[in-house]
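re the bet — no i am not wrong, look at it urself. input seq straight from the record:
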Amino acid sequence: MSSPKIIFIAAGGTGGHVFPAKRVAQKFIKEGFKVIWIGTNRGPEKNICKELDISFIQVPLYGFRGKGALIKLKALVAFLVSGVVFFFKSKPFGRENYPMIVFGGYVSLIAFFYFKGPVFLQEQNTIPGSVSKLLFSTNKVSKVFCGFPKTKQIFENFDKKYIKLIESGNPIGEVTQTNNTNNHLDKFNLLVLGGSQGSSFLNEHVPKSIEIFIKNSQINVLHQCGINKKESVEKSYDLTSKNIQIEEFINHISQSYTWADLVICRSGALTISELISSKSVGILVPLKNSIDNHQMENANYLYEKNASWIMQESKEFPLNLFNLLKEILEKKEIIDEKKGNLEKIKIKPSEQIIFNEVNAWYE
């Protein structure tokens, strides 16, 4: 009996990097591969590896972008130490030339210590991150899987014609489509998402904006607030109402998109991809001062197609959100218009595309 094919996956830190990696790992496991995950002890990746029953190599890498000189020096030392750790911890898996897929962020720096096989990059955002650009500009990767069309365009500007750019979309798994507002019930279902870690801004300001609609029994609310933030968010709502449900983290997000008529959310790359897949109309609130303003660029992808609204963080946010929700509740057909534009966006089978391209290296 032949031994299984092996692949390294490097992802860690935040859900935006880890959850796409999990989807891809599940695809390779399903196809009979042995997956070895490289990550840190600070994100959800270690628990994911336990869930998937796969090998985990822990390295001490951490982020340095926008940090002070001392933190950057420590990050450099951790980078060098990680190379040594990876060298010894990967030895039990043999010295064959196995492919590696990295998913952006600082954990992807481990690719600079990998010389045995090809390195592939999956970039989620419209604006590639610093590490992704570094890997690309130094010719460390041979293929790049781009989450959005603009991602591919930006990489093309580097003029690296021998690195294959593939518009794969983002790996998010199967997300079922949302409610049909033409068959609307008496209540309007509102989903509030602050990303995998929650959003202090949305947690603080959204309850103020929707309070009157809850009191008038016009809406149902499902609010994902983030770990250890539930108690503070509960204080912002009138919990005597049965129309409010607050969760630290929603495990079955697909069901929540199906339930929702409208989503108020950040504009991380995965959230945008999930809105497209589920045909969910969103009010996008880009994270202020996100690195390279990538959340605004992500949001613009839908806004420019008239498939969402954008509302920036400001002192006027609660009033602006109230006025927009009032308009939507009075004229629900404007959601149908944006939903129709969402349906025009082609969905790519991301996990399959990535698997086919990586598996082709073995053949």
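see?? The CA atoms of residues 98 and 310 lie 43 Å apart. told u. also The longest helix spans residues 69-90. so pay up
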